[in-house]
Design a protein that fits this description.
The chain has a seven-stranded mixed beta sheet, with helices on both faces. It starts with a strand and ends with a helix. The protein has two domains: 255 residues, Spore Coat Polysaccharide Biosynthesis Protein SpsA, Chain A; 29 residues, no CATH class. It is 37% helix and 18% strand. Helix 6 crosses helix 8. The protein has eleven helices and twelve strands. Strand 1, helix 1 and strand 2 form a beta-alpha-beta unit. The chain has 291 residues and is α/β, with parallel strands linked by helices. The radius of gyration is 20 Å and the shape is globular.
Length: 291
């Protein structure tokens, strides 16, 4: 078996320790670790090298969230030298629903994304699935494998436009919501051919959630699996469950408007706190008193 290419993009340094444990779970297999960061951090660099002395650490521009750094890494490598690619990043606890309901998302999303590397045994079983099923091209936790794009119509349409503009075949596909996965390395050679560079992505400013090229590629990573005749699945869960189960990610989006109908908390443009219960604003004085 050739080495596994492991890419970890570290934006939130405080989450490195969690990801380091996940990378350690890959150790029964040979791997090459690439870590990208958007700002100098000598303390973090020392921690990375203490655990992984052979790690390649590189500073990159803060563009394209975790996607542009990943493309930067693979575009400069010969993917024929690797069997698989593991893509990880420091996804912060940013809930879709703020306030008392943030537990519906919180760090649950990240932990589900990291499930496939949560232990040596689990990761080994995912690798064994590649050996058992030659049609499996990418794997991730099944509850994050999205079958519909109803929650982000813009990205769905833009991904389709990208496919047509590059004269790529039109196929039905699924993708991993959150872009953490293990996949066959050779499948990304088609992405290399696109010649997409970091400069093609806009700079990330603040905590913007506006859809952009990175969100298009989130979908294209799954698209290129299907376009080459492979499938994206969770090798640890039966296909029947994966096909018929409304996954956690889709369910959270379906529940979002229901929750928001009962509770909303936001800061207005004038900088004031606004809390609504059943769409009825609470008096500001009452809120201050309770706080």
């Amino acid at each position: 078996m050739k080495p596994i290419l492991v890419h970890v993009h570290v934006f939130y340094a405080e989450l490195w320790d969690e990801l380091a444990k996940c990378v350690q779970n890959i150790k029964p297999f040979p791997f090459v670790l690439y870590v990208t960061m958007v700002k100098a951090d000598d303390e973090l660099k020392a921690k990375i090298l203490a655990s992984f002395p052979d790690a390649h650490i590189e500073m990159v521009e803060n563009r394209g969230f975790d996607v542009a750094p990943f493309l930067h890494v693979i575009n400069n490598l010969d993917l024929d030298e690797f069997s698989y690619i593991v893509k990880l990043h420091t996804k912060r606890d940013i809930p879709f629903i703020k306030g008392v309901f943030k537990g519906l998302v919180g760090d649950i999303w990240r932990k589900k994304l990291l499930y496939f590397v949560s232990s040596e045994d689990i990761f080994k079983r995912y690798i064994q699935e590649f050996d058992r099923n030659s049609k499996v091209g990418m794997q991730a936790q099944y509850e994050l494998i999205v079958r519909r794009d109803f929650y982000d119509e813009w990205s769905c349409k833009q991904a389709q436009k990208f496919i047509l503009a590059h004269h790529l075949p039109v196929v039905k596909y699924r993708f991993v919501a959150g872009t953490m996965f293990v996949a066959r390395a050779h499948l990304f050679k088609e992405i290399q051919k696109l010649g997409i560079k970091s400069a093609d992505f806009p700079e990330v400013i603040g905590r913007s959630k506006q859809p952009q090229l990175a969100h298009i590629f989130e979908r294209l990573f799954g698209y290129f699996v299907y376009a080459q005749g492979f499938v994206l699945k969770d090798g640890l869960v039966s296909w029947k469950i994966q096909r018929n189960h409304l996954n956690w990610f889709e369910l959270s989006y379906l529940l979002r408007p229901v929750v928001r109908a009962f509770y909303q908390k936001k800061i207005t443009k004038s900088g004031k706190l606004c809390i609504k219960i059943c769409k009825i604003p609470l008096p500001v004085n009452w809120i201050k008193h309770k706080n």
